[in-house]
Design goal:
The chain is an alpha/beta fold. The protein has two domains: 52 residues, 2,3-Dihydroxybiphenyl 1,2-Dioxygenase, domain 1; 61 residues, 2,3-Dihydroxybiphenyl 1,2-Dioxygenase, domain 1 (Roll). 16% of the residues lie in helices and 32% in strands. It is built from two helices and eight strands, in the order E-H-E-E-E-E-H-E-E-E. It has a four-stranded mixed β-sheet with strand order 1-4-3-2, covered by helices on one side. A four-stranded mixed β-sheet has the order 5-8-7-6, with helices on one face. Strand 7 and strand 8 form a beta hairpin.
């Protein structure tokens, strides 16, 4: 039914301007604010052209308790070091072993590190 229909994912933040700065400046994504007033939305353009809509919910925002974006990289150590240099702090979850950088290297899956955006939504960077 929707096999040829364009689609995109979305998630909320508490502060659209802080999200634009985080995704645009910290992560280096194309982060465009569109609309005016209460109808402002942030659109992230990912590699390959896919877009993600980020919408403001202000005080009604609840951070996602699941990973909203996953970034695959060729070298997770380089990516984690670059993020750490920009002040990103990595999450450590119970039930997983982490190295000093905050990378989980587990035989059950790829090397992965989790962090949060400016609104505390969970993001991951993982080894390709």
């Amino acid at each position: 039914m929707f096999g040829s229909t364009t689609a995109f994912s979305s998630f909320s933040v508490d502060d659209l301007d802080a999200a634009r700065a985080f995704y645009g400046d910290t992560l280096g994504l194309q982060a465009d604010v569109e609309g005016t007033g209460e109808m402002r939305m942030l659109f992230l353009t990912l590699a390959g052209g896919a877009r993600v809509m980020v919408y403001p919910k202000g005080d009604a925002h609840s951070p996602a308790s699941f990973t909203v974006l996953n970034f695959q990289v060729d070298d997770i150590d380089v990516a984690v070091d670059a993020l750490a240099d920009k002040g990103v702090e990595f999450q450590r979850y119970e039930g997983f072993e982490f190295d000093a950088k905050g990378i989980c290297r587990d035989e059950r899956g790829p090397a992965i590190a989790w962090f949060t955006d400016s609104a505390k939504n969970v993001i991951a960077v993982l080894q390709r």
